[in-house]
Design brief:
By secondary structure, the chain is of the alpha+beta class. Among the domains are: 155 residues, no CATH class; 100 residues, no CATH class. It is 29% helix and 31% strand. The protein has a five-stranded mixed β-sheet with strand order 21-20-22-23-24, with no helix packed on it. A four-stranded antiparallel β-sheet has the order 3-2-1-25, with no helix packed on it. Strands 4-5-6-7 form a four-stranded antiparallel β-sheet. Strand 16 and strand 17 form a beta hairpin. The protein is globular and about 50 Å long. Pfam families: Beta-prop_KIB1-4 (PF03478). This is KIB1-4 beta-propeller domain-containing protein. InterPro entries: KIB1-4_b-propeller.
């Protein structure tokens, strides 16, 4: 009987996240849909878990122990409590393969709001349905040989979509085979286009398009101009103009919009066009600071506070300053790739809370190596940004999707003056004081080269 109870306890721990009183975030690595690895930076120890909720979903945001999850299969979003296993279903949302989300507070907080930034796109299942109809028509009009070729092409496309969009279902042993395949694909991509890394950056953070894709846009514009010069048929020109008009209509339909609701209370999201709020269809980065939403504009890097009217559900923008954190036109112009982070920093007692803007600069042949990290804090009294030459006993943790968190290093094995970030399987530490980088492999048992990873500060909000 005693052994049975111990076995149940082991299963309970295996199917739930490791909980402890540690004040620093967990590094959560998801190499497959079956298991997750929770790595403790201070303990230098990993814990393998199998949590169904994390195996079939992406983590879009979190507040304390509450996580905003997006289901892989249905793309539905819901709140999940990692401690109590409670769930709160959210109203339906339009599909966006790269949606962004902020959760201002746990849902038991009366000020809790959840905010989504969505560029509405077509769900892949709908594309498959349309392709299947097209294939049916082709089968009716083409011979058997053409039909077999189409089927083969569709199978290859499906395989690629599965590998790109979802974590592998295989075990770690199977992951090794997938790693070789992925590496081969990456090598081919690098040979064909040296800008593939910029594309990866875009997938991580769609709000950085202006920084990384300016060259691509210029190339596209040049190609369009060449096409216009080569065309000699008036009918062709008219058709091209009609196509451009259709593209403009589609761009308006797919313009960015903010979707706001109060979890557990709102029956539907309140939608508001982003351009009507900030005057643009995108912004650089955003975050939650002291329960409010903040964002940096894309071109001017102006800090805005997004104010929510609870009675009407509308959002308005209040400029906090008109001065950017840095002078973009005079500093680091030779660094075409960089990452932006806007995060809240606080100590254990929450006595000192700061809004930080972090700029990560890349260099190297393919701009994959971190060259420098600059940290700014916002002075709410004087309404200016100030560069921090030292972060002292604060450690900063930057995620792969341009989100981050902080913790106090006092009483832990976490290094002072350090900024932790992930590069594939590797854990990198940038020392702000010495401007040096150290690299380690925290979980050697994970063979996948670029597994989905997150920094999670799991705190039980019920304990006070």
């Amino acid at each position: 009987m005693m052994r049975l109870e111990e076995k149940k306890k082991e299963n309970l721990e295996y199917y739930g996240p490791p909980l402890s009183s540690q004040p620093h975030p967990w590094l959560v690595i998801c190499p497959s849909r079956k298991t997750q690895t929770f790595f403790s930076i201070s303990e230098d120890q990993s814990y393998i878990r199998s949590i169904p909720e994390l195996g079939n979903a992406l983590i879009r945001a979190y507040a304390q122990e509450w996580l905003v999850l997006e289901d892989f299969d249905s793309s539905n979003c819901y709140l999940w409590n990692a401690i109590s296993n409670d769930k709160i279903q959210l109203p339906p949302l339009p599909y966006d393969d790269q949606l962004l989300c902020l959760l201002s507070a746990p849902p038991n907080d009366p000020e809790c709001c959840i905010l989504f930034l969505i560029h509405e796109t077509t769900h892949p299942d709908n594309d498959d349905d349309e392709n299947s109809n097209d294939d049916t028509e082709d089968e009716n009009s083409n011979d058997d040989t053409d039909t077999n070729d189409d089927d083969t092409d569709n199978e290859n496309l499906d395989d690629d979509d599965t590998n790109d969009d979802y974590p592998d279902d295989d075990d770690d042993d199977d992951d090794e085979t997938d790693v070789n395949d992925d590496d081969t694909d990456n090598e081919n991509l690098n040979d064909d286009d040296l800008d593939s890394n910029d594309d990866d950056t875009d997938n991580e953070n769609p709000n950085d398009d202006d920084d990384t894709d300016s060259n691509d846009d210029d190339t596209d514009n040049e190609n369009r101009d060449d096409d216009d010069l080569d065309s000699t048929d008036d009918d062709t020109d008219n058709e091209a103009n009609d196509d451009n008009q259709d593209d403009d209509v589609n761009n308006d339909e797919n313009a960015a919009a903010l979707y706001l609701c109060k979890p557990g209370y709102s029956q539907e999201f309140h939608k508001q066009d982003l351009k009507s709020i900030i005057g643009d269809n995108c912004f650089s980065v955003w975050t939650v600071f002291k329960g409010d939403f903040y964002a940096l504009t894309m071109q001017t890097r102006i800090l805005l506070r997004l104010d929510v009217d609870d009675s009407s559900g509308t959002i308005s923008a209040t400029p906090m300053t008109y001065e950017p954190p840095y002078n973009y036109f005079t500093e680091y112009l030779d660094m075409p790739r960089f990452g932006n982070y806007l995060i809240q920093s606080e100590d254990d007692n929450k006595d000192k809370v700061e809004l930080l803007y972090i700029r990560m600069l890349f260099h190297g042949r393919e701009f994959e190596d971190v060259y420098k990290i600059i940290v700014f804090r916002f002075d709410f009294v004087n309404k200016v940004w100030e560069e921090k030459k030292s972060i002292g006993e604060t450690a900063i943790f930057l995620g792969p999707c341009f989100e981050g968190t902080t913790c106090c290093t006092r009483g832990t094995n976490i290094k002072k003056e350090s900024i932790y970030f992930i590069k594939g399987r590797y854990l990198c530490i940038f020392n702000l004081e010495t401007q040096s980088i150290s690299v380690s492999l925290p979980c050697p048992h994970i063979s996948k080269t670029k597994p989905p990873s997150y920094w999670l500060k799991l705190m039980d909000g019920r304990v006070r």
